[in-house]
Amino acid sequence: MEQLSDKEKYFDVAVIGGGPSGMMASGKAGEAGAKVLLIEKNKTPGKKLLLTGKGRCNFTRAEFNERLFVEDFGKGGKFLLSALFNFGAEDVIGFFEKHKLKTKIERGKRVFPATDQAEDVLNVLIRYLEENKVQVMGGTRVVDLEREGNRIKRLVTSKGDILAKNFIICTGGKSYPLTGSAGDGYDFARKLGHKIITPEPALVPIKIKEKWAGDLQGLSLKNVQINVFQNGKKQDDRFGEMLFAHFGLSGPIILDISKKVGELLKLGETIISLDLKPALEYPLLDQRIQKDFKKYNNKIFKNSLKELLPQKLIPVIIKLSGINPEKTVNVITKEERKKLVGLLKNLKMQALGLLGFDQAIVTSGGVDLKEIDPKTMKSKLIDNLFFAGEIINLHGPTGGYNLQLCWSTGCLAGKNAARLAWF
Fold this sequence. Notes:
alpha+beta, FAD/NAD(P)-binding domain, 6-stranded antiparallel beta barrel
């Protein structure tokens, strides 16, 4: 859409931000009969959506009990209940299936398009906007929101002023700034009187002190447990899959625990302990190693661990154990073996910090939940303003939670913005 004429500047609903929540909000408002404008900073909407799930788009989680679903969002999770009851995971799957996109459920209840292509999810949303006559204004910056009393009077954009009965801010957070997520929405909300909980990177890789992590770059470990300690006390844990990187740690369980690690680092030294064999308690793991040592009785130590550990990890464990790699297994002492068991159950690393917003999947923080009506997503401060998606102070773990938040809050905001446009 080029520069708007005077006649084209009036809408029932104007949506700022063409990410998942903005597209859903726009489509739902249009479906309800409203004249809708979607304003997007990029030339086309959905740029960040194409990056989700490593390009495969894990678009929801197949958890159809709404109360169980919100538990994983933490203490603010109950805020999402109304939105989920209105448009939950089962509804989202049905929405995409109805629009001719086949879906599949993978391990951990993660839901993907059957094609493994995020672009196919985006194409459904683009068609949905077209079907409901949503006007998309791409390549457009919102410069200002002008307020009159408790209402927004107009939007000032790089392509002219926009007037609307209701407005929805869906600008996302600050993660992946190259996609346009620069935190603009926080400034708009703050100017309108809303409290912003300080935005911080969330679901983000963790930097560690130990240099040997770089030697393990690219090594993925499944069915392991990480435990986080501070001052000798366990603070949190996760079980599942992780990945070593040149800077430290990544992968699902690392991303999920990163917020807690970030909070602890502000208080002092934080230790991440990796349990490589969580299914085996110390005595059972010791027995397992003794069995392997008996099998490889006359071999040297460095050639005796291939059934116990990934090949890439063996040199690191040997070095940390202090056991001579050329020593034959049959002369390894009980004390040396116990130290090896201890390493496998408690491989310690010191957290140095989190990577920044450019590596974060989502943003922690945002518009204070106390200032948004969870039944409508309407602002409690501004009569014709709604919020949806990552801009609100709520995020979940990896595995489809955060896109479900976008679909659910976007649907609720779009429907109610359209409904209230008639009054």
